Amino acid sequence: MATVVGQALLAASLEALVGKIVSGEFVDLFRSTKLDAALLEKMNITLLSLQAVLHDAEEKQIINPAVKQWLDMLRDAVFEGDDLFDEINAEALRCKVEAEYETRTATAQVLKKLSSHFKSFNKKINSKLQTLFERLEHLRNQNLGLKEGVSGSVWLGTPTSSVVGDESAIYGRDDDKKKLKFLLSDDCSDDRSKVGVISIVGMGGLGKTTLAKLLYSGSNIKLFPIHTRA
Fold first, then answer.
1. For residue 201, is it within any domain?
2. Nearest CA-CA partner of 44 in 21, 67, 26, 66
3. Is 230 a member of any domain?
4. Are 41 and 127 contained in the same domain?
5. Would you give the distance in Å from CA 4 to the centre of its chain?
6. pLDDT tens digits, 54-78
7. Residue 70 exposed, middle or buried by CB count within 10 Å (0-12, 13-18, 19+)
8. How far is CA 15 from the centre of its chain?
9. Count of the separate structural domains present in the chain
10. pLDDT in tens, 81-135
11. Domain encompassing residue 17
């Protein structure tokens, strides 16, 4: 059980880190503070490559100790990256608030000191980013025979068994189910040629698939001429 939770946590953390890097907020922040935006882009490409082989690594770690060690190193690097980007965000916010305050009554000497602080911050963070990038690149270049795009079983059609065995045994999802039913049945779009998609997101083990199955097997689903889930 601990292994499954650890795998879900790593996958979620890696996805979250990629999301931070490509967000407009961080891209703008890097450009405005003269942090290394080119390095940020390269790191994103490296993380996407690591993300592509993650599932295969999780499968192979059971029989290959080297892969397990690789996953442990990746986990440490991803967590360090998450901490680093939190540090960047916090420091940038602090500097912004400080700058807004100082510019109201600041002397030339104070403004010069603040500018020097920004330069020192950029130098320190760029160094940490370079170190993190090199760690990730090292993991990416390991020749462990990991394959990209390998995933578990994929649901392609109507299941042969019952979608949900006993709805009465599922607790705590009534409100979520009602909200999603409303979104599915709410006729808020005038363009009938478009297909609406509702994503249920979250870490593994939260019951996303179970919730989707509850909706899929519900009586209201018969209102729609075509219904599918992924």
1. yes
2. 21
3. no
4. yes
5. 18
6. 999 998 988 999 999 999 999 999 9
7. buried
8. 3
9. 2
10. 999 988 888 877 776 676 666 666 555 555 555 556 667 778 888 999 999 999 9
11. 2-140
